Amino acid sequence: MMVAIIALLIPYKLSSQVLGFSKLCKIPLEFVIGFILFVIIFFNIYPAGIVQTSVNSDTLNYLISVNINKNIAHILINLMNLIIWSTHFTLVFLMTTLVKYIFKIGFTKYIKTYTYAGRLLKNIGAKLKNIKNKISEIDLKKKPNKFIFTALSINLIILVIMCIAWIFGIILAIIYTIVMFIILNKYSKDIIKKYDKLLDATHEISHGNLDIEIDENLGVFEPIKNELQSIQKGFKMAVEKEVVSQKMKTELISNVSHDLKTPLTSIITYIDLLKNENISEENRKSYINTIDKKSQRLENLIEDLFEMSKVNSGNIHLNKMDVDIVSLMKQTLLELSDNIEDSGLIFKNNFPNEKVILNLDSQRTFRVFENLVLNITKYSMKNSRVYIDILEYEDKVDVILKNMSAVEIDFDVNNIVERFVRGDKSRNTEGSGLGLAIAKSFVELQDGSLEISVDGDLFKAKISFKKK
After folding, report:
1. SS3 state of residue 304
2. In the 8-state DSSP scheme, what is residue 180?
3. Residue 402 · residue 452 · CB < 8 Å
4. Which of 28, 182, 254, 314 has its C-alpha lying 20 to 30 A from 114's C-alpha?
5. Is 163 exposed, middle or buried (0-12, 13-18, 19+ CB in 10 A)?
6. Are β-strands 385-392 and 346-350 bridged in parallel, bridged antiparallel, or unpaired?
């Protein structure tokens, strides 16, 4: 008891450093218990008799009888007693310190870390957890043959072990049944919980809540969750597109009405003026000239609408051939030379000296260049410079047009290529608002791209065509 009390009073840090107990405690508990039991049994059977015989002089007489000096015999007897009692006291000290250490780190942690049984149970627990995870993550799209075979094989092994145990097999069967009930009950509750989460999310989405998120892993329902999130994302994109589409349709109806009504009203007004027989010949010619201009604008608008409807319906045929894009741009600038001259703009061209051949529809590509150049002549700052570059790369050709806007660019660049959208919000300039939309459609029909960008008041249109 005194040794045990001393072991309790000595700080663990000191005992672990002086006696090396920190290394000793890492020996598996089963080995420690086995060794202690062996020592206790051995010392209780044999050394106890030695102690007893040493007290009543039997040992002394025996040693003298085998010709050992009496003084040496006394020394040997004292040495044997010292070893026996020191061993007993050391075992008591170590066992007390071990118990103190177990309380210090925690019984559960010690069993898991420093016992073979704990390590085995830990490994079995990890295996069972792994099996549980595999069960919960079964892909319902695949045949479950492998899983069923594995589960039944494990069950068969357990049943065989219980049968070998004979009468104890009944106890094992009861324990096995209880354990299986607990596991299946927990698993079924987990499945129901995950199913309810999936059902709730589906219910929310069906009622228009497209922002609901499911962060938890749903096990066997995980593939369904992923598909549901894809549907959710698709719905959100569709709704956003529909909102933009509805807005564009409203603007389109308003803009078409305005653009058709304006020249038509002018035509009707001037026709009414021509009905007056008292007007002068000079006014008559002026009115007819105005009617002619308004009619041409109305005709161009209707042609653009017709062209746009063909593009949207896909009812358009491309007549592709090898086209020198440099010559086509030069031809466009030549045919629009009057508009360019009237605009007062200075065109700075950077074209390759050799031909740049691409497989394109020359008529539609000419229309693209025409619309972009006309757009520049209408909206550029007077007497400013316009830059047109044709750049040839290994896999593509870029046509870049840059001009300085006459008014502040305060519109959305992403919407300027839509139908009936203009940079001039007052709609005072000539045009249908379809020029860039038609250009973009014709470029994309030929597997190209048209990008619009703005830097301050610098307006930049970049056409890219892929080479064969």
Report:
1. helix
2. H
3. no
4. 182
5. exposed
6. parallel
Q: What is the distance between the alpha carbons of residues 450 and 465, in angstroms, rounded to a whole number?
A: 9
Task: Give pLDDT tens digits for 213-266.
Answer: 777 777 767 777 777 778 878 888 888 877 776 776 676 666 667 667 777 888
Q: Residue 406 phi/psi, 5° resolution? A: -75, -30
Bridge-based pairing of strands 458-466 and 396-404 is antiparallel
Non-local (6+) Cβ contacts of 453 within 8 A are 413, 460, 462
Token digits for 117? 């049984």
Residue by residue, DSSP assigns 49-95 as: HHHHHHHTTHHHHHHHHTT--HHHHHHHHHHHHHHHHHHHHHHHHHH
What predicted TM-score, i.e. pTM, was given to this entire model?
0.46
Provide the pairing of β-strand 357-361 with 396-404.
unpaired
Q: Quick one: which H or E segment has residue 390? A: strand 385-392
Q: Residues 6 or more apart from 343 whose CB is under 8 A from it? A: 376, 377, 378, 380, 382
Measured in degrees and rounded to the nearest 5, phi and psi for residue 442 equal -65, -35
- Summarize pLDDT for 127-170 with one digit per residue, the tens: 666 666 665 555 556 666 666 677 777 777 777 777 776 677 77
Q: Which residues contact 231 (CB under 8 A, 6 or more apart)?
A: 205
The count of C-alpha atoms lying within 13 angstroms of the C-alpha of 412, restricted to the half-sphere facing its C-beta, is 4
